[in-house]
Specification:
alpha/beta; UDP-n-acetylglucosamine1-carboxyvinyl-transferase, Chain; binds uridine-diphosphate-2(N-acetylglucosaminyl) butyric acid
Length: 421
């Protein structure tokens, strides 16, 4: 096993490029099951979750290749290798997002057997809304031996009204509806940029989806979809993480390949705290001023503050004198990183779904354990500013979603390296 070791108190400076979005790439890769032909997708990051999704798609008959220019080539051909319909436990248990093959498989192959994802450290994470949405389109769904077993003779357009916002649930139902007979409307659809990116991808492949980015989606069923060239949107969470790396080290970092419109909540909050943020086209410069103010943060569906930025903001607010309150509205138990930050000297009290953070003069390095991807990002950020050495263990969680994080932080001036335990 590997760990990351950080010698803190180094100011970050320089430029780095942001990768394509993991959470857009995963459902877009799954949607390739719906297409006949080859797609070339640029910007797919080289991370473990993408490798897991590739393995699942290969089990389902897909051919996947990394091209010399970094693009991912995915081929599914009608009538070839398309009699498999199972996403097995070994792979789904590694990555919950593999649930997003459910809609495409059901739609294209009329049958899907996907291991029940179960909960994880960030919360219960049920899939009832995915199931209800697909049932409304005409699927029959049962749970058998830990698998979601879905079949359909035909999927028919209908109105699906979600009882709560769900990102991958919206992706699944939208993907299933594109080849259904007639028109489907989805009320209370998730509007996250990653959901929008999937819709744009599907439309380029021949689908007819309107209302993209709004909470009501309309999908007119079409007969077929074809392989295309596509470029994934930049990863707003990776961008946000590097923005806070600059802010927390009172640094001066410019990020290339960002979409400022996807980062509004993060930008506003960083400005409110006292960071200088300058957007120029698809670049963003974040300068840490050092004179910071406390703030309150509530995570919400897009365009609100992403839950995937909560741990990183918590690390930053641990260094800001005074009291800040962070309220988690998406995954109420997503505070595992708080206990580890406390080991670094942070003053954090959890009250229900809120964390009360009182800034301390300095954090100090120690051993910390990563519980999930974004918790890990928060701990690395805290390590960048802590006095002494921080040893971050269980970094396989980080490798699921950040490509060469330590190399890129090191290039910006951090004293950070990966070593064997
Ligand atoms: N929910 C239900 N029933 C469902 C589905 C969701 O009650 O059937 C609840 C969840 O328990 C949660 C809320 O709805 O309270 C929102 O969950 P959502 O379904 O939107 O989450 P997700 O689609 O499973 C994606 C991202 C997560 C991100 C969330 C919220 C991917 C691959 N994952 O998960 O990303 O935190 O949306 O924005 O897109 C990460 O990248 O580290 C990550 C965890």
């Amino acid at each position: 096993m590997e760990k990351i070791v950080i010698e803190g108190e180094r100011r970050l400076e320089g430029r780095t490029r942001i990768n394509g979005a993991k959470n857009a790439a995963l459902p877009i890769m799954a949607a390739c099951i719906l297409l006949h032909g080859t797609s070339r997708i640029k910007g797919v990051p080289n991370i473990i979750d993408i490798q897991t999704q590739s393995e699942i798609l290969q089990k389902l008959g897909g051919k996947i290749k990394r091209l010399d220019d970094g693009a991912l080539e995915i081929t599914f051909l009608d009538g070839e290798n398309n009699d498999s319909f199972t996403a097995p436990y070994e792979l789904v248990s590694k990555m919950r997002a593999s649930i997003c093959v459910l809609g495409p498989l059901l739609s294209k192959r009329r049958r899907a057997k996907v291991s029940y994802p179960g909960g994880c450290v960030i919360g219960q994470r049920p899939v009832d809304l995915h199931i209800k949405g697909l049932e409304a389109l005409g699927a029959r769904i049962e749970t058998e031996e830990g698998y979601i077993n879905a079949t359909a003779d035909v999927l028919k357009g209908t109105n699906v009204s979600f009882a709560g916002k769900t990102v991958l649930g919206t992706c699944n139902v939208m993907s299933a509806a594109v080849l259904a007979e007639g028109t489907t409307t989805i009320d209370y659809a998730a509007c996250e940029p990653e959901v929008q990116d999937l819709a744009h991808f599907l439309n380029k492949a021949g689908a007819k989806i309107s209302g993209i980015g709004e909470s009501k989606l309309t999908i007119e069923g079409v007969r077929e979809l074809h392989g295309i060239k596509y470029e994934i949107i930049p990863d707003r969470i990776e961008a946000g993480t590097f923005m806070i790396a600059s802010a927390i080290t009172r640094g001066d970092v410019t990020l290339e390949n960002i979409r400022a419109d996807h980062l509004s909540a993060v930008i506003e909050k960083l400005k409110e705290i006292g960071t200088e943020v300058i957007v120029t086209g698809n670049e963003i410069r974040v300068r840490g001023t050092g004179s910071y103010r406390t703030t309150d943060i509530t995570t919400l569906p897009y365009p609100g503050m992403p839950t995937d930025m909560q741990a990183q903001f918590m690390a930053l607010l641990c260094t800001v004198e005074g009291k800040s309150i962070i309220t988690e509205k998406i995954f109420p138990d997503r505070f595992m990183h708080a206990a580890e930050l406390r080991r670094m000297g942070a003053d954090i009290r959890i009250e229900g779904t809120s964390a009360i953070v009182t800034g301390t003069p300095h954090l100090s390095g120690t051993n910390v354990q990563v519980s999930d991807l974004r918790a890990g990002a928060g701990l690395v950020l805290a390590g960048l500013v802590a006095k002494g050495s921080t040893h971050v263990h269980r970094i396989y969680h980080l490798d699921r979603g950040y490509e060469r994080l330590e190399e890129r932080l090191s290039a910006l001036g951090a004293a950070i390296k990966r070593t064997e335990e």
